[in-house]
Amino acid sequence: MSDGRIDTERKHVTLASLAQQKASGEPIVMVTAYDFPSARIADEVAVDLVLVGDSAASVVLGYNSTVPVTVDELLMLTKAVRRGLTNALLVADLPFGSYEASDSDAVHTAQRFVKEGGADAVKIERGGTTTARARAIIEAGIPVMGHVGLTPQAATSLGGYKVQGKTADHAERLIHDALDLQAAGCFAIVVEAVPAPVTELLTSQLDCITIGIGAGSATDGQVLVWHDLLGITTGHLAKFVRTFADLHTETVRGLTAYTNAVHNRDFPASEHAYTINEDELNALRARFPSG
Ligand code: KIV
Hints:
Structural class: alpha/beta
Number of domains: 2
Strand order of the largest sheet: 1-2-3-4-5-6-7-8
Number of strands: 8
Helix content: 40-55%
Bound molecules: 3-methyl-2-oxobutanoic acid
CATH superfamily of the largest domain: Phosphoenolpyruvate-binding domains
CATH topology of the largest domain: TIM Barrel
Number of helices: 11
Largest sheet: 8 strands, parallel, barrel
C-alpha cells in the first residue's frame, strides 16, 4: 500500500504474486517464525514470506549454532507455523546435514518439509554443490530459495560469522554462486552480510527475487529474525539488526508483576475463581465436618 497502512485484506501470496511484486517495485517483507501464535501475527500484518529458519536452533532451542538442529525439530516448528498461516508463503530451512550429501537426500528432505510440514518452498544454503541439490529439488516440483553470503551452516569454514564478499575475488565468486542458483531455478535468493555495493552489483545481474539481511537496501525484500527484530534476543546483536520493539523488557515487566501478585496473594482475585451452587457446597461441607 502506498499510504503506509498495512493491507490486512491482502490475499494469498504465491510465487506469481511475488514476481509481480518485484516487477512493480513493491518491497517484499520476510520474517522468521517458529510457532503458531507468531505465524498468526505475521499473517495479521500481511507479511509476504514466513521462514521457519534454522536460526530456531539458537533463538528457540538454545543451541550455540544452527548446526545441531535436526529435521524432526524443524519439522515440528514448521507444522506449528503452517497451522497459523493462511496468506503468507511458508518457506522452511533444510537443516545442516539433511541435503548436502546427495540429490536424493535433498529431494527426500524437501519432500518431508512440504508433505509433513506443509511448507510451500524450502531454503538451502551456499552455492557450489548446493546448486545441484537446488536443481534436483526444483525438478521434483518444490520451489527453492537459495542463500549466499554469510551462510551460518558453513560458519566454521567461512572463518566465523563475518561479512562476506569483501574482496573483488570473493565478491565475484559470491555473484557467480547466486547466478548459478538462479540458473538452477531458484525463485529467490537470500543475500546475507554482504557489503551494500556488492549487493547492488549482484542484484543488477539477477532476475530472480533477492531478499537481504545485512546486505543493504538494493534487494527486492528484507528478512530479519523474529526474536531479534522484536527485542526478545538479549546480548550481542548483528550490526544489521534494527530492534522494532522491546518484548524482553515487556515480558520481564509482566512476569515480575505476576510473580509479585502471587507472592502478595493479590492473584487470583475473586473474579478469577469459579463458584459452586450454595446447596451443593453445604452438602459437600456436611461430608467433611471438620473442614
Ligand atoms: O535461519 C534463518 O533465520 C535465516 C535467515 C536469517 C535468512 O536463514
